């Protein structure tokens, strides 16, 4: 078994370096999971010629706009451009239902709510394990240190284990999240350790702790300018928009 990771968007909220806001697509032979949906995600899907209707579930790490705002565009496209015939799962931290309602009704008050297709919304609590669609994926939730609702996910999918931090400052919970995983996808907004910590990881902290991180591969994203300027000094892969990684 294997899983394909498509890096649709690898940037931060400011689109530093011209990178699209965060969105990752995890695909197996029978399941497609979108993790986060930034403002540019629908455009990125179309650029990569991926039909949004192939997505079975959307999983959010938190509700900041660069991870969540594009949900309304994705949802709207499933009404008009890629008419959806089946349910769509929206999964994310507690507050997901209210945030979706707020986003949809604020953006297009005459179109929402609607029942063009069924949106199943499931809210995830920290320190829990959830199964998606008859074990097509198993998701373990780890609290992250960023927004109050922020969750990191350890996703067992296609026989592999992918750990995704979402946005967070460095903390030891990242070591737990990554334990025994095939891949850690870690945010890396800063190059140097910020003093005081302000909600994002730095390359210095990830590098300093890398011997404690028990994973086969560390991939960084959500890089701000400073990281991109120092990229030749960074020991780990910095994902680019459009990168595809097969984990076999
Ligand atoms: Zn972000
Ligand atoms: Zn954030």
From TrEMBL:
Residues 20-200 form the Metallo-beta-lactamase domain. Keywords: Hydrolase. Signal peptide: none annotated. It comes from the Bacteria. GO terms for molecular function: 3'-tRNA processing endoribonuclease activity. This is MBL fold metallo-hydrolase. It comes from Uabimicrobium amorphum.
């Amino acid at each position: 078994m294997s899983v394909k990771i498509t890096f649709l968007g690898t940037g931060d909220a400011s689109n530093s370096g011209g990178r699209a806001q965060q969105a990752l697509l995890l695909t197996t032979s029978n399941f497609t999971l979108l993790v986060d949906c930034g403002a540019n995600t629908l455009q990125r899907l179309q650029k990569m010629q991926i039909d949004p209707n192939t997505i079975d579930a959307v999983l959010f790490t938190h509700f900041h706009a660069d991870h969540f705002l594009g949900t309304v565009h994705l949802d709207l496209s499933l009404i008009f451009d890629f008419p959806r015939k089946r349910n769509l799962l929206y999964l994310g931290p507690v507050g997901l239902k209210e945030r979706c309602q707020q986003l949809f009704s604020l953006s297009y008050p005459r179109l929402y709510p609607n029942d063009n297709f069924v949106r199943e919304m499931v809210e995830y609590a920290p320190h829990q394990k959830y199964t998606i669609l008859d074990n097509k994926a198993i998701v373990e939730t780890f609290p992250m240190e960023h927004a109050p609702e922020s969750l990191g996910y350890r996703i067992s999918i296609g026989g592999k284990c992918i750990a995704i931090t979402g946005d967070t400052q460095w903390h030891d919970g990242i070591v737990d999240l990554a334990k025994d995983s095939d891949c850690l996808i870690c945010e890396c907004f800063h190059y140097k350790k910020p003093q005081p910590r302000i909600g994002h990881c730095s390359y210095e902290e990830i590098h300093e702790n890398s011997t404690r991180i028990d994973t086969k591969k560390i991939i960084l994203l959500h890089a701000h300018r400073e990281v991109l300027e120092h990229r030749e000094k960074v020991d780990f892969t910095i994902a680019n928009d459009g990168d595809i990684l097969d984990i076999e």
